Protein backbone atom coordinates (compact mmCIF):
# COMPACT_ATOMS: atom_id res chain seq x y z
CA UNK A 1 0.00 0.00 0.00
CA UNK A 2 2.81 2.36 0.95
CA UNK A 3 4.54 1.58 -2.34
CA UNK A 4 1.47 2.67 -4.31
CA UNK A 5 1.31 5.87 -2.26
CA UNK A 6 4.96 6.63 -2.98
CA UNK A 7 4.47 6.04 -6.69
CA UNK A 8 1.42 8.37 -6.72
CA UNK A 9 3.38 11.01 -4.81
CA UNK A 10 6.29 10.83 -7.24
CA UNK A 11 3.92 11.22 -10.20
CA UNK A 12 2.28 14.22 -8.56
CA UNK A 13 5.67 15.84 -7.92
CA UNK A 14 6.67 15.25 -11.55
CA UNK A 15 3.49 16.95 -12.78
CA UNK A 16 4.05 19.88 -10.43
CA UNK A 17 7.66 20.17 -11.58
CA UNK A 18 6.51 20.13 -15.20
CA UNK A 19 4.12 23.03 -14.60
CA UNK A 20 6.70 25.01 -12.62
CA UNK A 21 8.87 25.03 -15.74
CA UNK A 22 6.33 27.42 -17.28
CA UNK A 23 6.79 31.05 -16.39
CA UNK A 24 3.88 33.38 -15.76
CA UNK A 25 4.39 34.83 -19.22
CA UNK A 26 4.23 31.33 -20.73
CA UNK A 27 0.97 30.69 -18.92
CA UNK A 28 -0.51 33.95 -20.25
CA UNK A 29 0.60 33.12 -23.79
CA UNK A 30 -0.83 29.61 -23.47
CA UNK A 31 -4.12 30.96 -22.12
CA UNK A 32 -4.28 33.49 -24.96
CA UNK A 33 -3.53 30.90 -27.62
CA UNK A 34 -6.20 28.55 -26.29
CA UNK A 35 -8.74 31.06 -25.05
CA UNK A 36 -8.91 33.44 -28.02
CA UNK A 37 -9.67 30.77 -30.65
CA UNK A 38 -12.17 29.18 -28.24
CA UNK A 39 -13.97 32.51 -27.74
CA UNK A 40 -14.05 33.18 -31.49
CA UNK A 41 -15.41 29.69 -32.13
CA UNK A 42 -18.09 30.05 -29.45
CA UNK A 43 -19.10 33.53 -30.62
CA UNK A 44 -19.29 32.78 -34.35
CA UNK A 45 -20.47 29.13 -34.25
CA UNK A 46 -22.20 28.13 -31.03
CA UNK A 47 -23.95 31.43 -30.24
CA UNK A 48 -25.56 31.73 -33.72
CA UNK A 49 -26.51 28.03 -33.61
CA UNK A 50 -28.20 28.37 -30.22
CA UNK A 51 -29.92 31.60 -31.26
CA UNK A 52 -31.20 29.90 -34.43
CA UNK A 53 -32.66 27.08 -32.34
CA UNK A 54 -34.38 29.60 -30.06
CA UNK A 55 -35.68 31.70 -32.99
CA UNK A 56 -37.06 28.59 -34.72
CA UNK A 57 -39.84 28.54 -32.11
CA UNK A 58 -40.81 32.16 -32.79
CA UNK A 59 -42.46 34.36 -35.38
CA UNK A 60 -40.30 37.37 -36.26
CA UNK A 61 -39.75 39.33 -39.44
CA UNK A 62 -36.46 40.84 -38.29
CA UNK A 63 -37.95 44.32 -37.92
CA UNK A 64 -38.12 45.86 -34.48
CA UNK A 65 -36.45 44.91 -31.24
CA UNK A 66 -36.52 41.73 -29.21
CA UNK A 67 -39.92 42.75 -27.84
CA UNK A 68 -41.53 42.14 -31.25
CA UNK A 69 -40.56 38.45 -31.24
CA UNK A 70 -43.62 36.26 -30.75
CA UNK A 71 -43.32 32.76 -29.26
CA UNK A 72 -45.32 30.25 -31.32
CA UNK A 73 -43.91 26.88 -30.21
CA UNK A 74 -43.55 24.22 -32.91
CA UNK A 75 -45.80 25.97 -35.45
CA UNK A 76 -42.90 26.66 -37.82
CA UNK A 77 -41.91 22.99 -37.91
CA UNK A 78 -45.52 21.91 -38.46
CA UNK A 79 -45.91 24.34 -41.35
CA UNK A 80 -42.62 23.26 -42.90
CA UNK A 81 -43.70 19.61 -42.94
CA UNK A 82 -47.27 20.23 -44.12
CA UNK A 83 -47.80 23.44 -46.10
CA UNK A 84 -44.36 24.49 -47.37
CA UNK A 85 -44.06 23.02 -50.91
CA UNK A 86 -40.26 23.33 -51.44
CA UNK A 87 -39.37 21.45 -48.25
CA UNK A 88 -39.72 17.78 -49.21
CA UNK A 89 -38.21 18.24 -52.70
CA UNK A 90 -35.31 20.08 -51.02
CA UNK A 91 -34.74 17.21 -48.55
CA UNK A 92 -34.85 14.69 -51.40
CA UNK A 93 -32.41 16.71 -53.51
CA UNK A 94 -29.99 17.13 -50.60
CA UNK A 95 -30.02 13.38 -49.98
CA UNK A 96 -29.46 12.69 -53.69
CA UNK A 97 -26.60 15.20 -53.62
CA UNK A 98 -25.09 13.43 -50.61
CA UNK A 99 -25.51 10.00 -52.20
CA UNK A 100 -23.88 11.14 -55.45
CA UNK A 101 -20.90 12.59 -53.60
CA UNK A 102 -20.40 9.55 -51.33
CA UNK A 103 -21.02 6.83 -53.92
CA UNK A 104 -19.56 8.42 -57.08
CA UNK A 105 -17.48 11.59 -56.66
CA UNK A 106 -15.54 10.56 -53.54
CA UNK A 107 -14.60 7.05 -54.78
CA UNK A 108 -13.57 8.55 -58.13
CA UNK A 109 -11.37 11.09 -56.34
CA UNK A 110 -9.79 8.24 -54.37
CA UNK A 111 -9.23 6.29 -57.61
CA UNK A 112 -7.43 9.27 -59.18
CA UNK A 113 -5.27 9.66 -56.05
CA UNK A 114 -4.24 6.00 -56.21
CA UNK A 115 -3.27 6.36 -59.88
CA UNK A 116 -1.30 9.55 -59.30
CA UNK A 117 0.45 7.99 -56.30
CA UNK A 118 2.07 5.52 -58.71
CA UNK A 119 4.30 8.37 -59.98
CA UNK A 120 3.15 7.96 -63.57
CA UNK A 121 4.64 10.11 -66.31
CA UNK A 122 3.02 13.54 -66.22
CA UNK A 123 1.40 12.89 -62.84
CA UNK A 124 2.27 16.40 -61.60
CA UNK A 125 0.50 17.95 -64.58
CA UNK A 126 -2.61 15.82 -64.05
CA UNK A 127 -2.56 16.57 -60.34
CA UNK A 128 -2.49 20.33 -60.94
CA UNK A 129 -5.09 20.14 -63.71
CA UNK A 130 -7.52 18.13 -61.57
CA UNK A 131 -7.01 20.43 -58.60
CA UNK A 132 -7.71 23.67 -60.52
CA UNK A 133 -11.54 23.47 -60.05
CA UNK A 134 -11.05 23.32 -56.27
CA UNK A 135 -9.69 26.87 -56.15
CA UNK A 136 -12.80 28.13 -57.96
CA UNK A 137 -15.92 29.09 -56.03
CA UNK A 138 -19.08 27.08 -56.65
CA UNK A 139 -20.68 30.22 -58.08
CA UNK A 140 -17.92 30.49 -60.70
CA UNK A 141 -18.21 26.74 -61.37
CA UNK A 142 -21.91 27.32 -61.99
CA UNK A 143 -21.18 30.07 -64.54
CA UNK A 144 -18.64 27.88 -66.34
CA UNK A 145 -21.04 24.96 -66.64
CA UNK A 146 -23.86 27.25 -67.76
CA UNK A 147 -21.72 27.98 -70.80
CA UNK A 148 -21.44 24.23 -71.37
CA UNK A 149 -25.14 23.51 -70.79
CA UNK A 150 -26.56 26.53 -72.63
CA UNK A 151 -29.34 25.31 -75.00
CA UNK A 152 -28.44 27.57 -77.94
CA UNK A 153 -24.69 28.15 -77.73
CA UNK A 154 -23.57 25.57 -75.19
CA UNK A 155 -20.70 23.19 -75.84
CA UNK A 156 -22.68 20.05 -74.99
CA UNK A 157 -25.54 20.62 -77.45
CA UNK A 158 -23.05 21.54 -80.18
CA UNK A 159 -21.06 18.35 -79.58
CA UNK A 160 -24.26 16.29 -79.66
CA UNK A 161 -25.50 18.06 -82.78
CA UNK A 162 -28.63 19.34 -81.00
CA UNK A 163 -28.40 22.91 -82.32
CA UNK A 164 -31.66 22.93 -84.24
CA UNK A 165 -34.28 25.07 -82.38
CA UNK A 166 -36.73 22.18 -82.55
CA UNK A 167 -34.16 19.71 -81.25
CA UNK A 168 -32.50 21.62 -78.40
CA UNK A 169 -32.01 20.09 -74.96
CA UNK A 170 -32.48 22.50 -72.07
CA UNK A 171 -30.08 20.83 -69.63
CA UNK A 172 -30.71 23.29 -66.79
CA UNK A 173 -34.33 24.18 -67.51
CA UNK A 174 -35.72 20.65 -67.57
CA UNK A 175 -36.54 19.67 -63.95
CA UNK A 176 -36.18 15.98 -64.74
CA UNK A 177 -32.49 16.26 -65.62
CA UNK A 178 -31.17 19.59 -64.29
CA UNK A 179 -30.28 18.22 -60.84
CA UNK A 180 -28.10 15.53 -62.41
CA UNK A 181 -26.39 18.09 -64.65
CA UNK A 182 -25.64 20.29 -61.65
CA UNK A 183 -24.31 17.27 -59.76
CA UNK A 184 -21.83 16.65 -62.58
CA UNK A 185 -20.62 20.24 -62.27
CA UNK A 186 -20.37 20.06 -58.46
CA UNK A 187 -18.61 16.69 -58.62
CA UNK A 188 -16.08 18.15 -61.07
CA UNK A 189 -14.91 20.39 -58.21
CA UNK A 190 -15.37 17.86 -55.40
CA UNK A 191 -13.30 15.14 -57.09
CA UNK A 192 -10.18 17.31 -57.16
CA UNK A 193 -10.54 18.13 -53.46
CA UNK A 194 -10.90 14.48 -52.47
CA UNK A 195 -8.03 13.49 -54.75
CA UNK A 196 -5.62 15.87 -52.99
CA UNK A 197 -6.67 14.70 -49.51
CA UNK A 198 -6.26 11.03 -50.40
CA UNK A 199 -2.99 11.71 -52.20
CA UNK A 200 -1.62 13.34 -49.04
CA UNK A 201 -2.78 10.33 -47.03
CA UNK A 202 -1.21 7.85 -49.45
CA UNK A 203 2.14 9.65 -49.26
CA UNK A 204 2.16 9.07 -45.49
CA UNK A 205 1.64 5.29 -45.73
CA UNK A 206 4.73 3.31 -44.77
CA UNK A 207 6.12 1.72 -47.98
CA UNK A 208 7.22 -1.34 -45.99
CA UNK A 209 3.56 -2.29 -45.52
CA UNK A 210 3.09 -2.52 -49.28
CA UNK A 211 6.35 -4.41 -49.68
CA UNK A 212 5.35 -6.94 -47.01
CA UNK A 213 1.97 -7.48 -48.69
CA UNK A 214 3.68 -7.93 -52.07
CA UNK A 215 6.05 -10.52 -50.60
CA UNK A 216 3.04 -12.39 -49.18
CA UNK A 217 1.64 -12.61 -52.71
CA UNK A 218 -1.08 -9.98 -52.43
CA UNK A 219 -2.22 -8.27 -55.63
CA UNK A 220 -2.21 -4.48 -55.92
CA UNK A 221 -5.98 -4.46 -55.38
CA UNK A 222 -5.73 -6.67 -52.29
CA UNK A 223 -2.86 -4.56 -50.96
CA UNK A 224 -4.88 -1.39 -51.26
CA UNK A 225 -8.13 -2.60 -49.72
CA UNK A 226 -6.64 -4.83 -47.00
CA UNK A 227 -3.45 -2.95 -46.11
CA UNK A 228 -3.45 0.65 -47.33
CA UNK A 229 -7.13 1.57 -46.96
CA UNK A 230 -7.34 0.61 -43.24
CA UNK A 231 -4.26 2.77 -42.57
CA UNK A 232 -6.12 5.70 -44.17
CA UNK A 233 -8.83 5.54 -41.50
CA UNK A 234 -8.16 9.09 -40.16
CA UNK A 235 -8.25 10.47 -43.72
CA UNK A 236 -11.44 8.54 -44.45
CA UNK A 237 -13.07 10.09 -41.39
CA UNK A 238 -12.09 13.62 -42.43
CA UNK A 239 -13.24 13.03 -46.01
CA UNK A 240 -16.61 11.64 -44.90
CA UNK A 241 -17.29 14.69 -42.71
CA UNK A 242 -16.17 17.05 -45.50
CA UNK A 243 -18.34 15.25 -48.04
CA UNK A 244 -21.43 15.47 -45.81
CA UNK A 245 -20.83 19.16 -45.11
CA UNK A 246 -20.20 19.96 -48.80
CA UNK A 247 -23.38 18.11 -49.79
CA UNK A 248 -25.68 19.76 -47.26
CA UNK A 249 -24.33 23.29 -47.59
CA UNK A 250 -24.52 23.30 -51.40
CA UNK A 251 -25.98 26.66 -52.38
CA UNK A 252 -23.95 28.83 -54.76
CA UNK A 253 -24.08 26.64 -57.83
CA UNK A 254 -27.87 26.19 -57.84
CA UNK A 255 -28.57 29.79 -56.84
CA UNK A 256 -26.65 31.24 -59.78
CA UNK A 257 -28.39 28.74 -62.07
CA UNK A 258 -32.06 29.40 -61.33
CA UNK A 259 -32.33 30.65 -57.72
CA UNK A 260 -32.82 27.07 -56.52
CA UNK A 261 -36.21 26.48 -58.15
CA UNK A 262 -37.71 24.23 -60.85
CA UNK A 263 -36.09 20.99 -59.77
CA UNK A 264 -33.08 22.45 -57.95
CA UNK A 265 -34.64 23.05 -54.52
CA UNK A 266 -32.16 22.66 -51.63
CA UNK A 267 -32.48 23.25 -47.89
CA UNK A 268 -29.77 25.91 -47.94
CA UNK A 269 -31.66 27.86 -50.61
CA UNK A 270 -34.90 27.57 -48.61
CA UNK A 271 -33.12 28.93 -45.53
CA UNK A 272 -31.72 31.88 -47.49
CA UNK A 273 -35.00 32.71 -49.21
CA UNK A 274 -36.86 32.86 -45.91
CA UNK A 275 -34.29 34.75 -43.85
CA UNK A 276 -32.97 37.35 -46.30
CA UNK A 277 -35.63 37.10 -49.01
CA UNK A 278 -38.60 39.40 -49.51
CA UNK A 279 -40.68 37.52 -46.93
CA UNK A 280 -38.04 37.98 -44.18
CA UNK A 281 -39.41 35.14 -42.05
CA UNK A 282 -36.57 34.85 -39.54
CA UNK A 283 -38.27 32.29 -37.31
CA UNK A 284 -39.37 30.10 -40.23
CA UNK A 285 -35.93 30.25 -41.86
CA UNK A 286 -34.29 29.43 -38.52
CA UNK A 287 -36.47 26.32 -38.25
CA UNK A 288 -35.26 25.22 -41.68
CA UNK A 289 -31.66 25.86 -40.60
CA UNK A 290 -32.18 23.73 -37.48
CA UNK A 291 -33.55 20.89 -39.63
CA UNK A 292 -30.48 21.15 -41.88
CA UNK A 293 -28.27 21.02 -38.77
CA UNK A 294 -30.09 17.96 -37.43
CA UNK A 295 -29.81 16.15 -40.77
CA UNK A 296 -26.04 16.71 -40.86
CA UNK A 297 -25.54 15.75 -37.21
CA UNK A 298 -27.77 12.73 -37.65
CA UNK A 299 -25.34 11.38 -40.23
CA UNK A 300 -22.02 12.50 -38.73
CA UNK A 301 -22.50 11.73 -35.01
CA UNK A 302 -23.43 8.02 -35.35
CA UNK A 303 -20.43 7.44 -37.63
CA UNK A 304 -18.07 9.24 -35.23
CA UNK A 305 -19.51 7.31 -32.29
CA UNK A 306 -18.99 3.96 -34.01
CA UNK A 307 -15.47 4.96 -35.10
CA UNK A 308 -14.36 6.05 -31.63
CA UNK A 309 -15.95 2.98 -30.04
CA UNK A 310 -14.03 0.78 -32.48
CA UNK A 311 -10.79 2.63 -31.63
CA UNK A 312 -11.36 2.10 -27.91
CA UNK A 313 -12.03 -1.59 -28.50
CA UNK A 314 -8.84 -1.84 -30.55
CA UNK A 315 -10.65 -3.01 -33.67
Could you characterize what this model shows?
With 315 residues, the protein is mainly α. The chain has a single domain (73-313), classed as MetI-like fold (Orthogonal Bundle), CATH 1.10.3720.10. It has 14 helices and two strands, in the order ααββαααααααααααα. It has helices at residues 2-20, 24-55, 75-82, 87-116, 123-131, 138-149, 155-160, 178-203, 207-215, 220-231, 233-248, 252-258, 267-275, 282-313, and strands at 58-59, 70-71. Strands 1-2 form a two-stranded antiparallel sheet. The chain is flat, with a radius of gyration of 26 Å. The mean pLDDT is 85.
String of helices and strands = HHEEHHHHHHHHHHHH
CATH superfamily: MetI-like
* Number of domain units: 1
What is the strand arrangement across the widest sheet? 1-2
Look up the CATH topology: MetI-like fold
Gyration radius (Cα, Å) is 26 Å
Please give the number of β-strands: 2
Describe the global form.
flat
Mean pLDDT level: 85
Amino acid sequence: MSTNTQVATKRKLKRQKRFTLLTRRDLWVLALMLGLPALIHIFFVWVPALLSIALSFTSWNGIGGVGTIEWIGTTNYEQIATIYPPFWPAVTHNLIWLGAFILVATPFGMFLAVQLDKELKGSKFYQNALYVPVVLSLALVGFIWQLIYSPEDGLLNNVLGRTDPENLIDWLGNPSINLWMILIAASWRHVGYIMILYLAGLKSVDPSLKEAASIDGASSRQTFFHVVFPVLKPINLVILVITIIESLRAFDIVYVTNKGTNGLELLSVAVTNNIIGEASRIGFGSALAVILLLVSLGIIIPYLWRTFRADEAGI
